[in-house]
Description:
Structural class: alpha/beta
Number of domains: 2
Largest sheet: 5 strands, mixed
Strand content: 5-15%
CATH topology of the largest domain: D-Maltodextrin-Binding Protein, domain 2
Shape: globular
Distance between the termini: 44 Å
Helix content: 40-55%
CATH superfamily of the largest domain: Periplasmic binding protein-like II
Strand order of the largest sheet: 7-6-8-5-9
Amino acid sequence: MIGRRSSAFICLIVLLVSCGGERRETIVIGSKNFSEQALLAEIVAQHLEARLHRPVDRRFYLAGSYICQQALLSGRIDGYVEYTGTALTAILHDPIQSDPSTVFERVKSEYKQRFGLEVMPSLGFNNTFAIVVRGEDARRLNLKTIDDVARYSPQWRAGFGYEFMERPDGYEGLAKVYGLKFSTAPRILDLGLLYRALLDKQVDIVAGNSTDGLLAARDLVILEDDKHYFPPYEAVPIFRQDTLARFPEVRAAIEELAGKISDAEMRKMNYAVDAERRDIAEVAREFLHSKALD
């Protein structure tokens, strides 16, 4: 399993680097490999098409943050939406900080200085990691915070995504801060299977995302991060500076999206895609229309 993942990762890097070179006169929007990312990228792409009156290329599902970062740096994409806490820890490798404005300013400054990339204002919502348990367990054991789980974790099974297990702001630090020790090593699960495994009682606790649409549709409980382990994860568009120079109208168009998406609105859109199986482009179009941004 490790060998296949490493080979695929290397192939992606080779593809991104080898496909560099002189840029076309088009704007390319990328995304990471989960539905919220594709939704955000589609919202950005449709809004740019409406404001710039030119087609926008889409290059979605580019694996994780590192691949998207490399795609930006190589010029294969012009922009994508990242999360400030992810940029801080996974890309800049900075220590975890909890103040949203401090994290934003640090990421904005360092991305400009180190990479020549522009971090735009937040879209308005914070998609933090969500430590989730079954509602029946939360009620039976009176679980409200992550700290409440510590006394039960030696008898519990955990299920986490691969990235959460590897990230500096992921499992290792969380376990240390909260003193979590599970009955077996956490299972590595595909992000799309986390809640199914939890509801089917294959695991007892998972790490999802606070804007996951399925959280509102199932008997699941998000535990409070009472020790404030996780940094803020505000959704911010990131663009190449040369793109903003070539297409000055892009900046104004992206800034129109600032603060337009609340946590509840993002969760609702995710539910439409993940639970109702609606088309991403249609959901994005409806959102932009509701905000008079189409």
